[in-house]
Amino acid sequence: MYNIHQHTNVLQIRFILQAAKYFKIDQQELLDHAKVSIDDTLLPNAPVPVEQAIRLWDAAEQLSGDPLIALKSGGMTNTYQQSHLFSLACASKNLMDASQYIVRYEKNYTGIIRHNITINSDAVTMELITPGDNIEGFRSTVERHMSVMVTAYKIIIPPEEQVNTSPDVYFRHQAAAPISEYQAVLGKKLHFNHDRNILVFSLTTMLVDNPLYNPDMEEVLLEVVQRNDEQALEVDSLITQVEKVILNNLHNTDLNIHFIAKQFSMGPRTLQRRLSEENTSFNVLLNKIRNQRAMILISDPARNMSQITQLLGFQKQSALNQAFSRWHGTTPKKYRQKLFSKESENDPLKHQNVSEEEC
Predict the structure, then answer these.
(1) How far apart are CA 140 and CA 67, in angstroms?
(2) How far, in Å, CA of 255 to CA of 246, rounded?
C-alpha cells in the first residue's frame, strides 16, 4: 500500500501499542491485524520501517472503529517519558518555552517527522514536515502531534483566555471524521486540504505567563526528560541487534541473511558489507548463537533431540549433528551422555542411596 523507505524507531511503535491498549484494543490482535512484529529486545531508538507505524495506526482505527484514535491519544500521558514531558510543559514559563521543549523531546514519538518554528512580529507558526507525497499515510501521526501541542496550550493558557486565543490548525490531508469531532480536541479554527501541516498561535498567546510556572520544578523535570531522552537514544551496535533478531527467530528454518536484512529495511548485500566492516558475517553470528543456545538446550534433560533440533532451526537432526561436531568434536548425543554421566557421579544424594542399598 505504501512506498516508504524511511525509518522511525521502536519507541514510536511502543507508543502506538500503548495508545491502542488505552482504547481497549488487544495489542497482539493489533500487531496481527497490521502484520507487524516487534522485537522486544531492541532498544527504543533501534530503527523500524516507518511503514509499520502507519500500518499500526490504520489497524488501530479499523479495530476501534474510530478514525481519530491517534488524534485523541495526543493528550494522553500513557507512557513514562510523555508524562514527564507534559509535566515539564506545565512547569514552563510560557507556551513558547513549552513548545520548544515539546518539539525538542517529542521527536521520539513522531519518528521521522521534522519540525520548523517560524516567529514573526505577531504570530508563531509551527510546521510538521513529512517525507514524500504520502499525505494520507502520515495523517494519524500528524494529527497526534497537533493534539500534543494543543494539549500543552490548554494546560498553560487559563480557560477564560482560551475563548479568543485558540490556534489555527492546518492539515494537508482530508478530514477523516466529522469536523465537530476534530473541534472537540483542537478547537474551532480548523482547515483541511492545505498545502502545509501547520499550527499558528498569536505571539501574545505564546508569551502569556503560565500561572503554574515553577522554575525549580522546571529544572528538575528538564533533567528527568533529558535523561529519558538520552536513554531513548542509546542504540545497540549492529552486531548486537542482529544477534538479538537471530536469537528470537532461531527456530525459523528459513532464517537467512535475507530475512535478517528485511528486519532492518536494508538489502542483504548492504547488511553483509556492514557486518564485514565489523569483521564478522551473518553465518559467524548465526553459528555463535546456535552454539550458545545448543549448550543450554542440551543441558536440559526435559528436552529431547528432536525438540532441540527444531528450536535451533535445523531441518534435520543430521544437520545439528554435523554442526555440533564441528563446534565441539563430538555429537550432541555423546556430549549429553557424558554431561549427564558426570552430573550423576557428582550427585551426593545418589551416592548416599547406593551406600544404603549396599548396606
Answers:
(1) 8
(2) 8
**Domains delineated in the chain:** 7-232 (3.90.1520.10), 238-345 (1.10.10.60)
pLDDT digits (tens, 9 = 90+) for 130-159: 877 778 888 998 998 898 889 888 888 888
Question: For residue 165, which amino acid is it?
Answer: T
The string of pLDDT tens digits covering residues 154-170 is 888 888 888 889 999 99
> Rounded to two decimals, what is the model's pTM?
0.62
Rounded CA-CA distance 279/266 in Å is 19
- The DSSP line for 33-53 is HHT----TTS-TTSEEEHHHH
Q: In the chain, count of helices (H) and strands (E)? A: 20, 7
Positive or negative torsion for Cα 95, 100, 106, 110: positive
Grid coordinates belonging to 28: 497482539
Q: Return the closest-CA partner of residue 19 out of 85, 58, 72, 63.
A: 72
Rounded Cα gap, residues 104 and 230, in angstroms? 12
Q: 58: exposed, middle or buried (C-beta count within 10 Å: 0-12, 13-18, 19+)?
A: buried
Sign, Cα dihedral of 142, 20, 154, 232: negative
Instruction: Give, in order, the Cα–Cα distances in Å from 180 to each of 169, 185, 199, 250.
Output: 14, 9, 18, 50
